[in-house]
Amino acid sequence: MEWIQAFDILTIQETKLDKSFPDSQFTIDDYNMFRQDRKKGGGGIMVYIRKSIPSHRIRVKSNEVEAIVIDIQLGQQYMSLLCAYKPPAVTNNTFTNETKEGRTWLDICDIYDMVNLITEPTTICKTKESCLDIIATNAPVFELHSGTIEAGLSDHKLVYTVLNRKVMKPKTLITIGRCFKQFDEKAFNRDLECVAFNMAYVFDDINDICWAWEKMYTDVLNDHAPIKSKKIRSAPGQSKFITPEIRKVMWKRNALKRKYYKTRSSVDWESYRTQRN
């Protein structure tokens, strides 16, 4: 499988494996492997991640969709990778109805502004072309280019995306402020009492008096609460407008909406409407 070396991360759906196939049979040098088999055969998914990329699997449970969730670190960026497969037996209505399972994916797309990077058909038959295989992200700015490859192993094309590592480097912002971590109010006041503020009035001009007074006060303040600079790294793919507080409000709105669809009560509708507005 030399061709796999072209990928840093490779996800495979419909592996059709079970526990009778040991991991050693699919191990590839320099890659960590994550797999999830279906108990009754068919389906199944597998993920290969290059060992140079820190990765950690997050355990999730779904009765409808087969999924593997992995936290990864690319440079200084932390991301969550979801590899999911919808079996043909699961209807599309599962993702459009108002049940808890059906709303989860739509809520994620809504809150995190998910965008599909694959814009061309991934499966073609005599009567129609469909884009059934997608790569969705909330940080399309990281994308260098995406597309499909005719691998010849399935009637579905292989979908891929290439990330722009230069863009993924967080911007460094420098903030300047006073550090009150070791500030002692009593000691600060004692030192202020020792300052000869009356010396400022040797000047006749009011501006000079203000300058001298402020200079003496600031010198004491700098000793007790020094000015320090702090570097803050911000990811360019993150929205500047959707703050953690706004996300919490959006989650609450969606939770109230799901509750209303479950109970259909006027009280729950009013709670959802109020939160929405």
Automatic annotation (TrEMBL):
Q: Which InterPro entries match?
A: Endo/exonu/phosph_ase_sf (IPR036691)
Entry-linked SUPFAM superfamilies: DNase I-like
Which is one Gene Ontology cellular component term of this protein? extracellular matrix
Protein name (record)? Endonuclease/exonuclease/phosphatase domain-containing protein
- Species name for this entry? Acropora cervicornis (Staghorn coral)
